[in-house]
Design brief:
This protein is mainly alpha-helical. 92% of the residues lie in helices and 0% in strands. The protein is built from one helix and no strands.
Length: 71
Amino acid sequence: MRRTVERLRRRGVERLAAAPATEKVVDGLHRAAAGLVEVTSEVNAYAGLLEEKTGELRSKTRTLKDTPDSG
């Protein structure tokens, strides 16, 4: 029984010692997630712009194909 109590005490101390490190990891993960959200937003905006430009180029290409040669 004493061994079990001692083992549980050590684990409790280990957990308390690990708490600040865990908090740092969680803070780091939170910052990384916030950065990913920002980057994802920028990538989505850029993808939207590319889709818009692709549509414009397709439209111009169709117009050029439909225009009879003047020569």
